[in-house]
Amino acid sequence: MKQEYQDLVLQACGASSLRVGANIQTLWSGYGEIVRLHLEDCDRPSVVVKHVRFPQEAEHPGGWNTDRSHTRKVRSYQVETHWYQNYSTSPSCRIPSCLAACSHGDEMLIVLEDLDVAGYDRRRTSVKDREIRACLSWLAHFHALFLGVAAEGLWPVGTYWHLETRPDELEAMDDAELKAAAGDIDRILNKCCFKTIVHGDAKLANFCFSQSGQDVAAVDFQYVGGGCGMKDVVYFLGSCMEEKECEKRVPGLLDYYFTELKLAVKKDVDLAALEKEWREMFAFAWTDFHRFLLGWMPGHWKINRYSKQLTKEVLRKLKPDQKLQTSDDKRSKRVADR
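== Protein kinase-like domain containing ==
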């Protein structure tokens, strides 16, 4: 790590010296790494640094190495920096504090509180009901906190699979019916009356757990932005449950999410209307991510019977609307011809 970056960390934390510790994670497509720095003579024993270095040639596991992909990633780190510097949450949806950030040329640095030190030192590759509910509670409180808040400086539409940012993956799809309906699904999600700020990448791997599993904090806000809260919910559930579990457990877990959401939202919100709209959006949000996977990685394990069934339901719902739209268009044309 460059001396100027080390000096930034020392100054921000009031430490006398530092030692580079473990490499926690390599960033997606070789765009840098996340490392832990151990500090001396300050009230923080360590911090976590997200060190972004834009590579000359990216290494994408799916082969999606394009200028568009690179531009999207660069923007994602700019958004994440803006998020940490300008937004704050509550204890009910804990995130790490941002201690410092800088950018120079093709490098960016974000210095964050070490969540391990704060008691969120457990990571999970599989979860029980307690951990799932803890994450859903985090999402509910996060969505409630930012309900109706404009996503200033963030992605106008959050999530990394947003249709407008993924034309290459859409073009690669073999499912002609879903490809044709992708724009309508995106439009319906974007026209929600109740919008919030979504995490945008709320998979299990981005949650840090307390020892008991009852408390969680979230990291990785590269794709935070505006949208319907169901986008985070479906992505999280799909990240930690296989198809049979989804079929069995999703209804009850969705009920729990809405119970937590209603406890957290402000008094002046029409709770019944909010729940009604977002429940209706659940299948659309799931199908929207399914659309992305079909183009991005057709053999992905998340492309399963449960996802396909929800997609069928959405496409069936869209057909009457499409026919009605066609009839309206014809009627408008007849009027215009007169």
